Amino acid sequence: MRRRRWLRFVAALLLLGAPSGCLVPRQMLAGPDDLRDYRDVRMAAHEGRRLAAAQRYLVRHPKGAFAEEVRALFEQEEAAWFEAAQSSRSRAREYVVDLPNGPHADAARALLVLFDEHQGDVETLTLLADARRTAARLDSETARRKHVSDVLLAAVAGLLDPATWGARLDALPPSLAAALSGEVPATWDASVRSTHHDTLFFVLPTPQGSQARVLDVSLQLVLDRGRVVQGLLQGEDLFVLWAEAMLVRTLDPNVAGDRELAATTVTDVLAGALEATVPASRCADPRVNQGEGERLVRACDGWAISVRMGREAGEVDVVDVVGPRPKEARPAAKTAR
Asked: Measured between alpha carbons, how far is 193 from 169 in angstroms, rounded to an integer?
């Protein structure tokens, strides 16, 4: 926490001291919750949902990095939204559904009376608002679960890019550079190993209620003389948590059957991802499962890929990739005179 406050303080100083044309982006000053709620505002397609997201942002982040922009957007669009609400009963109802606590919510409810709405419609409006909020929450939770696979498969795709192997950290191919981008910064902490950490959150619906999950995953690049020679995607109970996000069901990492289901699910996905680069017909290793927790092996054409699962709950699962090193350019032969 102190480190985060210090980084924001330094960023603020840089912002104040930077000359015009060299301003620090607001995204660098915004916390993860601030940035996520701002994205909800910008990505809302429906005008009413955008206003609801903007009002929610202002309540949660009254002094947030984007508060001034969101406040201006809300004041302008909310006024137009209420003006439209005066044109018909359905538009007035939409205002109440989307902005039950909006500046003109009481006036919009009064309009419903003027439009001869039945008394029971107020309860209906509340139910509609609840239904919309529930649908939006479910959509958000589905997107978060999908985001887990997106992040992990993007890292695998970056490691399967031939341009990765032998590249320097400051000249990584776009596929790997994209996998290393995100809200959580990379930690390049040594000349031999450089690691990028991500913390992924998602929720699983259950009959007993929603269960939150946290997946800490790292993408580690091993360097030789400053160039990438190995990549490891790893995390504690990585396969169980990844499988939960894909299957939308809870799995117990302490139960052998659940661990096997998780391993099979993740291995099937990874086998498909590897097929174009190291096809099973040519590169599958028949000795798979001979190694410690090894679930999938591909080895050919300079590639050596091993997918390993920890023996028990709490251990690290690994996708270990070594790609073909680029051929060094040979010196041109001297011409005879």
From this structure: 11
Same domain, 273 and 219: yes
User: Mean per-residue pLDDT for 166-177?
Assistant: 86
Burial environment of residue 333 by CB neighbours within 10 A (0 to 12, 13 to 18, 19 or more)? exposed
Signed CA dihedral, 15, 20, 23, 26: sign only:
positive
Say whether both 155 and 294 belong to one domain: yes
Q: Of 107, 135, 163, which closes a domain?
A: 135
One-letter identity of residue 252? D
pLDDT at 115 over 60: yes
Average pLDDT, the chain: 79
Can you give the pTM of this predicted structure? Answer: 0.57
Measure CA of the first residue to CA of the last residue in the chain; give whole Å: 70
User: Any idea of the CA torsion for 127, 132, 133, 138, to the nearest 10 degrees?
Assistant: 120
- What residues make up the domain containing 200? 144-322
